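Re-running DNA topoisomerase (ATP-hydrolyzing) to confirm reproducibility after the cluster update. Everything else is unchanged from the original entry.
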Amino acid sequence: MADLKRLKGSERVRKRVSVMMGSDDIRGCQHTLFEIVSNSIDRHRKGFGDYIKVIKHEDLSYTIIDHADGLPMDWNEKEHAYNWDLALKVLYAGDNYDANSTALGLNGLGLCSSQYASEFMEVISYKEDKKYTVKCKKGRPIDKETGEFICEDDDNLFTKEQGNRVLLVESNTENKTGTYIHYKPDLEVFTNIDISIDWINDKLDKQSMVNKGLKIEIYDEKEDRLYTHFYESGIKDYIKTISNDNNFSDVIYFTDKGKGRDKADKPEYDYNYEIALVFNNEINRLEYYHNSSELLQGGSTSDAISLAFTYAINEYAKNNNVFNKNESKIKFTDIQDSLICVISSFSTMTSYANQTKLSIDNKFIKDFTNQSLKEKLKLYFIENKLEADRIVNQILINKRANDKAEKSKIEIRNKLQQSNKKGLSLKIEGLKDCDMRNSQLEERILLVDEGVSPNSTIIKSFDGRIMGAMGLRGRFINSLKSSVTDVLKNVPAHTLITALGCGIEIPYEERKIFKDIQTFNLDNLRYGSVGILCDADAFGKGINLALITFFYKFIPTLLKQGRVFLVKSPRFCITTKKDTFYAYDENEKNTIIQDLQSKGIKYDIGIKKGLGEFNTDEFWTYVLSPEAREKTFIQLDYNTVEEDIIKYYFDALMGENIDERKKYIREHITNVDLNELD
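Result of re-run:
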């Protein structure tokens, strides 16, 4: 076993940035910016400064300016080190470890880690009478005169003499206090440092909202554009900006505070929260913030809100006899469908999941918030009965719709699970399987036709070892306009899904509904190819289009892998006294006729209107034999056409825009009465 190695100095972050910042991609880079801004926000919360400016420069460096009390930079007798050294080089150094801290930057990691991960960083601190400047590059402080490194990249603190070579001290002639930090994340550390201005705006807009009275400006140097974020009344103003005219309640606002501990042997700490909410018929949104950090994964406060709202609304519904007989209780998902809610909480002791601060798990915070909200909601409903009735009635509408959808979802899940199986044999009406035991997936072909009569012709003609046949019984649904539920209720569509065995791919707009169901498994595919084989008349072509549309929307993988084919059969039969010729289209027919005419041979022309008009030998020889398949099996080459073009034609031919369909037919098809189209 080789000797162990300890990372030192800047290497602790630069070589393991994912540990500190969550990732080495743009998310980690975003985290560096937010950690630095968080320090300025923390100073605002402690009563220093009400203004922050963030600049995104054209070279992808960033500047953060605040008007607070200035980052400590001079000598710290207690720690026998410079404060700038502690702030920029020492992990877990900071001023937020006291039991009375409600800071964003709780662990003393943010600024230091951001400095270590930077290509360069300049920090200027304005105190009452002094201006302090420190510069770093590649995560290491540099000499203020030469710009060179002063010592080894290790964990040692700078001596007074070394620190003096880094720290530039000047008189503060600008009559201001605050901190200026200009830095550039290092592309040797992160894979991407181009933080979207939209992300910066969204992130800091929310910080302005949960820190009422804090003005945050963001300047995009490349676009020469300034953005301003300010909420005088905090989350109450924010709720009004994200809701609309479809609110069916007033904006409701509660606040409370208390002291407690998470366990009997843990220290007591302070906690307070404010919550603003409104009920709305169109918008639903839940946002949780703790010590100004957005809790994207929730935790204690999200659990408390779920418990409190569910309890209070169920109690009101029960006491006012609005439930139907034997009706189940309201769930939080029913409430959430119509709820816009923002909670901002602060505590002097916080248990975050990790440095990215996406959730908290303090037991006291959960219990206190839950009990407090229960009482406040109960009192609000008593004092505002008309509004409470409106709220509960709408939530009951949500509940009953969700119950119906859940019942439908269970039925669909059962259908999908039945059709998502790899079984060797299936008993399905209309399906004649191939010899599954003596054939391989890639040589199997499922021939899909439009009914009983053609199916009989195919079965009598095909190679039963590798070919299966399925006759569609009933009208195949136009799946472009249809939901998963509609498709599974359509007998021919459901039969085809079951015969294929791989299930279906849920369209984007319905994925949320079926997120907990495995609906598609290509390993369960029973046939390597699908041949769509319908009559050559207009009705048959309509079925062709309906089937292609189904694959496009619900099993696009089979199209993209080139597994779906249109199978054409001879359209014309040309007979002479001695010979019979078959033509697949007008061009072939004309070529044969011209040849016969040039030889002076008389002929008759017959039209094959349907598959049932072929005898067994004809169908095998001219449609299904290996030689014929080279001509009759037309692969739908999905990948050679741009997605937007494919979408345009499906929308035109199968969508709900009748005018677009008429336009297409007018331009491409003749002898059609457009007044008969729907």
